[in-house]
């Protein structure tokens, strides 16, 4: 049986990382809440986190638990961009070295940012699954794998987002979480359901990358081809850990189109004055599209996961 992370694991992660990461703002958006059916909508702005996304939390929690010998060997990961930046920053923070395998089509801005944080990048042609295979090869040669979502230390670090939400949102009915590989929703659901089990935890995936939805329906992790404008949600598989937590704690996983994601991205820019990447808008897309239905006046938090989008692409997307 898969050993799940616990509320205590997430609490320990917060104590470990809190002096290095930001406590990100929880902002109310009346305009978007009205458009989502009259809910009270709050946005948890992880786009203001170090390295521009929530990924810094999990990467640092993992790096801070490595032994001196493991740090000396260096770490390896696979990423479309945000975990790459986060791991490069986290490795530098603890005096280690990170190599990230990224798809050749990865955002040039994210590649350069990763290098700017001191990380090394290896680009691989083809589907994302080939990047995972190359990272596994590098791990077999000696580096320590810090998986972007299939690592309990990473998932526990991501769960610290929920601790901050609970500290500031007394009246809460639902939390909406974008899903890629499932590390973020695993950490958040663990915290929310252990402290306020009545609060609904709802995941949102792109229709063209429905990895968690397919895995839940099948009852086991599935590996599928993915292609979506939301590159941060384009994980081709999930992990036993994340799936087990989703089965136990997540109330629903809904799918949204790429067009709905882009519309939500534009609305966040226009009405909340937030510049975010497509992946970060998926949760809001689930609300604005009507794929998620909640009672009027419900108190809802949508996680805005990151803001790492290069300017040339931003102009095209907007």
Report on this structure.
The protein has 318 residues and is an alpha/beta fold. It folds into 2 domains: 7-53 and 153-317, 3-Layer(aba) Sandwich (Rossmann fold); 55-150, 3-Layer(aba) Sandwich (Rossmann fold), CATH 3.40.50. It is 45% helix and 15% strand. A 6-stranded mixed β-sheet has the order 1-2-10-7-8-9, sandwiched between helices. It has a 4-stranded parallel β-sheet with strand order 5-4-3-6, sandwiched between helices. The longest helix is centred in the last third of the chain and has 14 residues, at 258-271. The N and C termini lie far apart (45 Å). The relative contact order is 0.17.
Annotation, overall tally of beta strands: 10
The CATH class of the largest domain is identified as: Alpha Beta
N-to-C series of helices and strands: HEHEHHEHEHEHEHHEHEHHEHHEH
CATH fold group of the largest domain = Rossmann fold
Structural class comes to alpha/beta
Helix content: 40-55%
Strand order of the largest sheet: 1-2-10-7-8-9
Termini, distance in Å? 45 Å
Give the overall shape: globular
The unreliable regions are: none
Strand content: 15-25%
- Biggest sheet layout: 6 strands, mixed
CATH architecture of the largest domain: 3-Layer(aba) Sandwich
